[in-house]
């Protein structure tokens, strides 16, 4: 027997002695100014008693009128509100309660405000016909202090609209599930705010907790965290049926869900609302809002909770998609961006990759480090055209192909030759792609793409580098004393343009203490720079960096850090961070170039440093480059290269003399021989008393002869200039060819100002 049922009254037995029977219901309602009405949705008629008719501004008598006649007495805004409240009450089988403003016949002035409480009665569950039976009672508008607890009309409505706008904006800006839950936990609903939130989902046939706030008992081993969906639990019922569950008291919770009530009682809540999270007609989860105080869940409060649940579902759906995309791109980046691998005796390596375009965490730029069968190490850096997913996919394929070709033992030129044929093949939509373009009318999936690439094969023991270049920016070398030189490297077309392209190999030696930088054009051009101004900025950063510590190469065979002594690694890592921050960090906004600062290109950086004796590093500054017969325009580059080498030389006139002599020597090789010119320039000694030795070698055995050209002669002045401008010069025959050299001494008078130059012809 239930003890909470009201005691049945029979006759006058329950009344105190001496009291009569209760008055008729009509008299009681008239005494408290409450009217009765019945609204028949099927017939469109409304039946009113005298008091209800008076409250609605009609003649004060019992009557049956039309729905249109009654509707004309309501404020338009209130009519729209009550329509939604009634539909919700019909769906959930609850009371519909609302405040309504009654207008005069002209609809200009508010006569009074009434409160309506009705109970929907559905006669046929298969149809939409229903009746509303309830009461009307005049009420006063609440004051400002009670606006938050008032029903639909007045300040409460404005507070609710402002709350929903703020909630929608805050949830729309959340980018992760954690942020969505944090925003939802911070929402202050008008008049009632939950202090415990939980979002439930489903995995297979089990209920899962996506996230929670204010319920610190939830954990991986909590029974609520992984119960079957057929469990008698409100959230599971919401997921099964897609209908909300409102529990106004612990007694109601215990009565409706006795099985799971012991699990919920430990959280000490008084009221609960479980609402479906529905997106595109599919219930993706359930949202629980728990309160530490009793909440009756009026239709207005349910309307607010339902609206918040819809916005929360949309926000969680967007956050889930964004998190999946981030997980995909981060996983793609981890799989495509390799670690630098094992330690390299005698060398230190550092690398950086910064995705900056299109919102993706990986793009078309990449770097790689490949151990070769010969014991050498190959370093690769490249950039596939574009900043989209297709560029990232092609990058992954090309990187794997390059690694395969290098691991087979091919030389740098052969590796790039095979790579260009490979890229040309996979971007050929006719040969390798599908001819059905109905789903790709613009041929975006098979459009030709090219890639730039720089391939370096390094011998750690000797510092010898063999480099092949495919349309990629040339490397930069920072010498031990801070001098920065851009190394001219012979190259060919970018990969994928010509499947039969050739890629010549350039050799240079990385001396002890020197650091080579290879990068993609994102490091150069980010911030509105072009190649020229961008290299100027990079040069300034490298020249001003003074973080390299003085350390000696370890004597034993064991090495501590990834690829060299710990001091070298730390310094190189710091330099890598400095380069990236200088072009992509906050300070880079103050050093923008002449172009628009779009910052939409990815950045890949690879630094290679040769370790060794610090004293030996400080004494020698050496560079070497080759000028081919087919590239006479590189003579100008050689002149600029020598000026960069002598950037801190004390005598500018001597620098001009050295540049003139180098230009003459290289030009003579290109004009009078059939081979290429090899330039080697070396600066030794302490500042102020240094020596420059420049040497140009070629494959011809013909030795130059000093002549006496006339004023109108167009040639023959090379050795004359050597005799006038150099302190020492000479010609050294070799087994295959010869070399012409000269020396200049810093701080000494030029040869044309002194006693004369000494020439040496070695046998």
Our estimate of the beta-strand percent is 25-35%
CATH architecture of the largest domain: 4-Layer Sandwich
Q: Classify the helix fraction into a percent range.
A: 25-40%
Strand count, sense and barrel status of the largest sheet are:
6 strands, antiparallel
The value of Rg in angstroms is 43 Å
Strand order of the largest sheet: 3-2-1-6-5-4
Mean pLDDT: 78
Q: Structural class per helix/strand content?
A: alpha+beta
Keywords: ATP-binding, Hydrolase, Kinase, Magnesium, Manganese, Metal-binding, Nucleotide-binding, Phosphoprotein, Protein phosphatase, Transferase
Pfam families: GAF_2, HATPase_c_2, SpoIIE
Catalytic activity: O-phospho-L-seryl-[protein] + H2O = L-seryl-[protein] + phosphate
InterPro entries: Bact_Sigma-Reg, GAF, GAF-like_dom_sf, HATPase_C_sf, HATPase_dom, PAS-like_dom_sf, PPM-type-like_dom_sf, PPM-type_phosphatase-like_dom
